[in-house]
Amino acid sequence: MLPGNEPVRAPYGIEIIESCLSCPYREDRMFCNLPPAPAQALAAITSAAAYPKGATLFVEGQSPRGVFILCNGRAKLSTSSADGRSLILRISEPGEVLGLPATVTGKPYELTADVIEPTQANFISREDFLRFLREHGEAALRVAQQLGETYHSAVAEMRTIGLSHSAGEKLARFLLDLSADHDEGKGEVRLTLTLTHEEIGQMIGTSRETVTRLFAAFKKGQLLQVKGSTVIIKNKAGLEGVVGA
Amino acid sequence: MLPGNEPVRAPYGIEIIESCLSCPYREDRMFCNLPPAPAQALAAITSAAAYPKGATLFVEGQSPRGVFILCNGRAKLSTSSADGRSLILRISEPGEVLGLPATVTGKPYELTADVIEPTQANFISREDFLRFLREHGEAALRVAQQLGETYHSAVAEMRTIGLSHSAGEKLARFLLDLSADHDEGKGEVRLTLTLTHEEIGQMIGTSRETVTRLFAAFKKGQLLQVKGSTVIIKNKAGLEGVVGA
DNA sequence: GTGGCAGCGTGACGGCCATCACAGCCAGGA
DNA sequence: TCCTGGCTGTGATGGCCGTCACGCTGCCAC
Fold first, then answer.
1. C-beta of residue B176 within 8 angstroms of C-beta of residue B167
2. Sign of CA dihedral B180, B186, B188, B192
3. CA-based nearest residue to B83, from A169, A178, A16
4. Which nucleotides of C are covered by protein (CB under 7 A)?
5. In angstroms, rounded to a whole number, what is the distance separating the alpha carbons of residues A137 and A123?
6. Which tens digit of pLDDT belongs to each residue from A87-113?
7. Which stretch of DSSP H or E encloses residue B155?
């Protein structure tokens, strides 16, 4: 069964896989460690599918069909304006649930979700999902928690975009936010950044060229090194200085 | 009883009122039309208080004490950076629940809530609130819905801040967003805007002077009129044109 | 009345960065 | 092998708007 009442039929071939309820990442996320009954109920309404790079899960403005749970692969959540500019709010990681706010409230999806790596995802239709939540209060609480965290990260991005005077400050904030997740080995932080300069610009609200120039400036100032898609922050304090300035 | 385990003792005198569970606005909001049992349980853990203009309900970074439900009056939700700049995310209206994301997730409050009018609010401590949600699944679902809407409006503000090239575009977007709520009488929209230019600037990420100049420009262009704290949008299409440009 | 203060209006200046334009570079495909 | 297309690097230019500075009004307290 294809996901949704308006199935994503799409130009690209979607290949249905047996189930990815058994995929990794599942354990430590939203609907895990549920008591057996709800877990089973959940499995019954879930359908899995695979999406190629570039596929679109849902589009800003569509009425909500349901939620997608990423098993592996990542997706880009963005919004765009009439004149073609777009703003990336978030890159979703495996285990995250996409389309949750719209599905819960019934308002249109506020963002567009594009898969940026080959991805397997579980789909649950809005109808089924709401019924499930009504019947399993403990799951509703977890949904509320995930929504709270989503909001939290949205506020964090608002801070980097809204509270900076300069583009340099935005980029520094952005990198520091990223590095917050990653480990910190002997003073330097490594992070892999599989985003183009264009996309980074869309995340922090500046142009592609500015991102290029800023990276050059940061490298020149010994703040970081770039090797392919890995960024090594050599001087975290220095970056924090850029933010403070 | 004063609200919270870290009561807001504060320089200003907080005056405890009997209860504002009976206040207006209550009917059409989050915890209304609940079946009798949960409604009663909710009442039992709720304590009411009054706050003068300028009072602070909670501060960004504090660990979450609980939620505040505005009975009347309004509150300003903002975040600020080390150098004193601040960004207002939202002006909350009566009936809204403040501090919900932090209370649900357990992460620190991400925003600061300042009362901007004399306000009555109900307080529920985090502990009580979470217990209540666990015991009453249907309420958890409503919480999820409110969180979804909060997220929705956060995204809307991100759009106005992040997707505009010019400050004029931001202000136009801001006014149009506001006018979306208000009635539209014979081509023109009236809205009351009890914010200073400074505050408007903090909402859209520009300086006070720019807001002043833009209002002047919009008036000159016959797009709107300002009388005291009421703004009359004379030419909505024109404003939309500013956004499109 | 009068001082003080918060908010608004307006000019001048300068810096930042978006934009345009073009040149290398690399990967992948014909 | 060369071509093609996406990505990155870099210069030149110009405009927007942040910032500083100052004056104005209206309001409240004393």
1. no
2. negative
3. A169
4. 6-12, 16-21
5. 20
6. 999 999 898 999 999 999 999 999 999
7. helix B137-162
Closest nucleotide (C1' vs CA) to B164 is C18
Q: Which residue is nearest to nucleotide C16 (CA to C1')?
A: A166
Give the pLDDT score at A28: 45
Contact state of A158 with B133 under an 8 Å Cβ cutoff = no
* Helices of type H across chain A: 36-45, 100-105, 126-135, 137-162, 167-181, 197-204, 208-220, 236-244
Distance from C-alpha of B207 to C-alpha of B190, rounded to nearest angstrom: 25
Q: Mark residue B205 as left, alpha or beta (left: phi above 0; alpha: psi -120 to 50; beta: remaining).
A: left
Residues B104-154 have pLDDT tens digits of: 999 999 999 999 988 999 999 999 999 999 998 888 999 999 999 999 999
- The bridge status of strand A230-233 relative to strand A224-227 is antiparallel
**CB-neighbour burial class of residue A11 (10 A; exposed 0-12, middle 13-18, buried 19+):** exposed
**Nucleic strand C contacts from chain B, 129-168, CB < 7 Å:** 165
Give the pair of three-digit tokens for residue A11.
């130009």
> Is B151's CB within 8 Å of A110's CB?
yes
Q: Which of B75, B79, B33, B22 is nearest to B51 (CA)?
A: B75
Nearest by CB: A105 against B107, B137, B149: B149
* pTM for this model (two decimals): 0.87
Q: Do B145 and A80 touch (CB under 8 A)?
A: no
Q: Higher-confidence residue: A7 or B149?
A: B149
